Amino acid sequence: MSAAVASATRVAIVTGAAQGIGLSIALRLADDGLDIAVNDITPKSDLLQAVVSDIQAKGRRAIAVPADVTSEEEVKGMVEKVVEELGTVDVMVANAGILILRKLLDSSVEEWERVMSVNVRGVMLCYKYAAAQMIKQGHGGRIIGASSSAGKRGAALMSAYCASKFAVRGLTQSLAVEMRGHNITVNAYCPGVLITPMSQHPDDDVNGGPVSTFLKTIGMPLSSELGSPDVVASLVSYLVKPEAHFVTGQSINLNPRLFD
């Protein structure tokens, strides 16, 4: 299919889409009528191909673009491949992220830098190359990043994660200002505790149910209200719509425990 034909339908890239929040976002945007490029690390290629099949079953075009978001060369190549195969990049969802639970006094520099590399540099590179492509295309776009409620309030055992998610908020606000003249909005989502592979643990069955091990580790009560990845997908669905053109530079809470 030619690029001219492909560009008639909006195309989204979703990173970290093999599972969890990224998977939910990819499927929701496909339901909304977008064609989807799903990204994750190469070891998850089989999972990505399953997501591609699910999206194609919905009648949308989909491709897998395995890449390490911490690598500038790979992110640049990912965007180029999506343009080559699907014709355009209209939405970037920089969702990929990692979490390491560790007291700051017990944290190694290597662990700290790993979290920062994925959660900050990875988002920055996706923002950078998506924005450059959208400016080149000249018809605007939507850029969305993964922050967290931990990017608005510090938490024990999560110093690196919190710092990285605070950084995403600043990055999002700054790029939003820079993109004002290009009809490109830049926003971030800030969910609380969700039931995802990142927050689940093999000991959950004996500790009290889904995400119980994570909640106990960070000192939250087992009665804490939990969300599903669908709540994030629903917000992203709105932010990519034409009527969301007036929303930019925002880091939006999805957390019943946080009101500031």
From TrEMBL:
Keywords: NADP. The keyword tRNA processing does not apply. GO terms for molecular function: oxidoreductase activity, acting on the CH-OH group of donors, NAD or NADP as acceptor; quinone binding. PROSITE patterns: ADH_SHORT. GO terms for biological process: fatty acid biosynthetic process. Gene3D superfamilies: NAD(P)-binding Rossmann-like Domain. Pfam families: adh_short. Belongs to the short-chain dehydrogenases/reductases (SDR) family. This is NAD-binding protein.
